[in-house]
# Entry
Amino acid sequence: MKKCVITVVGKDTVGIIAKVCTYLAETKINILDISQTIVSGYFNMMMIVDVADSNKTYEDVINDLDKIGKNIGVLIKCQREEIFDMMHRI
Amino acid sequence: MINIFEVNETNKMVEQENLDVRTITMGINLLDCSSNNLSEVNEKIFNKITTVAKDLVHTGEEIAKEFGVPIVNKRISITPISLVGAAACKSSKDYVTIAKTLDRAAKQVGVNFIGGYSAIVSKGMTASDKFLIESIPEALACTDFICSSVNVGSTKTGINMDAVQLMGTIIKQTAIQTKDRDSIGCAKLVVLCNAPDDNPFMAGAFHGVSEDDAIINVGVSGPGVVKYALEKVRGESFEVLCETIKKTAFKITRVGQLVAQEASQRLGVPFGIIDLSLAPTPAVGDSVADILKEIGLEQAGAPGTTAALAMLNDQVKKGGVMASSYVGGLSGAFIPVSEDQGMIDAVKAGSLTIEKLEAMTCVCSVGLDMIAIPGDTKPSTISGIIADEAAIGMVNQKTTAVRIIPVIGKNVGDMVEFGGLLGYAPIMPVNPFDCTAFVSRTGRIPAPIHSFKN
# Structure
């Protein structure tokens, strides 16, 4: 298992989760956990995913998600989970 | 499992609070490039650097992308060149050829700086050391990415005052040789006392002789992160203040540790150390002076500054030490003037003087750093400033350094622009009284006694 964290931040609009999830399904990336809040009209979502079986390279996934984000008008980042683990867990 | 608030906190640090890994520095041993034939030395040095470090920049960029944390600089530190070139270089001109080779190698591998055009002369100077030091002005004038350092003293050996005197002249010559670019050569030249072997930060980085053949050292940063964390505890007690700094330093350092481990693994080079320094940049909000203001000072330099800085420095170390398996380098808060917007403001407001900065260097790393002084400052005065700073390092068993820039053609009240991470600075006044008779005494100041501490 190779866990990554995808974050989506931006103005709320129809179909953000749908677009991201469709892409992940096509790329064979399994979603392990989703949490989402809306803070003063801003959409804020975090997904923990497993990219072990992904049919694209990790770099392509990062670039693709970035492009999808730009099309919807939100910021999508995909980062390896270790950075958060290192910072917040002893 | 990680929750959304933790993820947001980390990303906010990167996006809004200037968290970054300041540098991945690869230390490379060049002792095996030694030969008595100069062109052979040059060829071996070029080949070794461009082979060992060929993937450094690419790997750094890859890690930055995967983890979503910027890695600002990729650098190389090398064995002090006065050792590598000793057998081949018969004059300072010979050393300049090595400087040009290093610059060419740095450009080929794409690093930002290469440090180690250095001599360690804390007790005495060999002929080779002297040639190298004398070649520094020309070497820095005809290259772009070379950083040079000279270690003139240590707690164990005392201070080599002959070297201190020489360095006053060398700094002045370097300023003159690069006067058409605001004497920028001096921004890449540092005079140290108790220089560490594994420092990843420029201009004082070199790969000490006690090190592995190649090694990865990482310098973290994050004054902005500490400042924002402290905004949330305004008016609270010192206990709360210190806890907040420690926790923040821990988090920042963990990022450095992760990056260092990854880089070490991907490059197949052992991990050396994490340098815990808070390194500011000229970007607004990425300032050590702003932390001091947040702690409760109107400006950096106000009474209380030294105490606040001592506390900050200590808490950063306490938090950082637990976050990393190996800590080394300079590890403290940097207080450069031109690279820190808050420091620049404090100088402009008349709050911060060279004398106060000197006091501050007693309690933090690393010394009088990136300070622009009038271009007509005498070499002996510069030597006096170096001697003062080296004495602080020698007596307090810590690293101290001087990186000052006598900007030719400029005077107090003028501004000087170095560009990029080197920033800009107002020219600061220097004490006008003379110390020539002191610094022209020959020999060295003996090592201090380590008892009867007062």
Notes: The mean pLDDT of chain B is 94. Chain B is about 45% helix and 15% strand. The first strand of chain B starts at residue 21 and ends at 28.
